[in-house]
Specification:
The chain is an all-alpha fold. It contains 16 helices and no strands.
Length: 331
């Protein structure tokens, strides 16, 4: 028996009856010889971590555009926080931690530069719209590794595709990531908004804070405990009704006071113009695309200039916009 087989045996012995077992995975689109050390879900996690798309998350906006200071979240730090929360819940519920981690690490790699604002810009102009969860799947299936894709398992792809609120993950591990995503961003966006001076702690809705806690760490700890207590031994992932209403009340509060604030709206207009300008430029001038991306377009008619713009980091998008549209003036 090799190491992988030993791990698979332990999953069958010790994980919950409701857990996804790697030995029973629905597999990959392209069959591969199994690794003698890692399970299928462990291999998926490693492939995501070593991908270019994952590395780019460090320079992609979470909420605040070009913040002054080193402690604001980026898309990468958000992803790591989601992974940590997800793994804590999966471990306590005796679910598959490797599958949970693989989904969590990959769930946002399809995000555009400048977060949801960049996504909205592409959604408005593309005939088929644009959704970052679908883009994440497209990246791991058709763009990474020069078009070969990462060939991830069905369960990981399903978790990535369905991590948004309107999704229905087919595994409990995917449902953990779906909920952990909200636990993470609601709490760290409050922290960042206070740091940015957009909020004061006294502005937070007292009913929700009274239930969830008066600091970010208390709220996250409380929410993790509540998920575990309400989901333990069950074929579902859920929060207590009052807790569910409190966290979604906080989410609504953030939309009204932070995400849609006048300051954010003014910056969002600039970002939308930047993203759309880049998209229009590269759509009309495919010949100036990088050679490796031109090969992707030539090899797959579903790949377009929109995918190139969507893959950019914030600072690279700003650099490209400056070099294309702003004059280089010398005195």
């Amino acid at each position: 028996m090799n190491i992988r087989e030993s791990i698979e045996k332990n999953e069958l012995l010790y994980l919950s009856e409701f857990a996804a077992k790697s030995v029973y995975s629905k597999g990959r689109e392209k069959s591969e010889q199994k690794c003698d050390m890692r399970t299928e879900f462990q291999r998926d996690r490693d492939r995501v971590v070593h991908s270019k798309s994952f590395r780019r998350l460090v320079h992609k906006t979470q909420v605040f555009i070009s913040p002054e200071g080193d402690h604001f979240r980026t898309r990468l730090t958000h992803t790591l926080e989601v992974s940590q929360i997800s793994r804590s819940i999966a471990r306590a519920l005796f679910l598959n931690e490797d599958l949970t981690e693989a989904i969590a690490l990959a769930h946002d790699i399809g995000h555009t530069p400048f977060g949801h604002t960049g996504e909205e810009a592409l959604k408005e102009i593309l005939t088929d719209g644009f959704e970052h969860n679908k883009q994440s799947v497209k990246i791991v299936e058709h763009i990474e590794k020069n078009g070969a894709g990462l060939n991830l398992t069905y369960e990981v792809l399903d978790g990535i595709l369905n991590h948004r609120s309107d999704g229905e993950p087919s595994t409990l591990e995917g449902k953990i990531v779906q909920l952990s995503d909200k636990i993470a961003y609601i709490n760290h966006d409050i922290d960042d908004a206070i740091r940015a001076g957009l909020l004061k702690h006294s502005d937070l809705p007292k009913d929700a804070i009274g239930i969830l806690g008066d600091t970010g760490s208390k709220r996250i700890n409380f929410l993790i405990h509540d998920v575990i207590e309400n989901s333990y031994g069950k074929n579902e992932i859920k929060l207590n009704k009052d807790v569910y209403e409190a966290i979604y009340g906080l989410r609504a509060f953030l939309f009204n006071t932070v995400y849609l604030s006048q300051l954010q709206i003014a910056e969002r207009k600039k970002i939308k113009n930047l993203v759309l300008s880049l998209y229009n430029y590269y759509s009309e001038n495919n010949d100036v695309l990088p050679e490796d991306f031109k090969k992707l377009i030539d090899g797959n008619e579903n790949i377009s200039a929109a995918d190139y713009v969507a893959s950019m980091t914030d600072r690279f998008a700003l650099k490209q916009y400056s070099s294309i549209f702003l004059p280089s003036v010398r005195f």
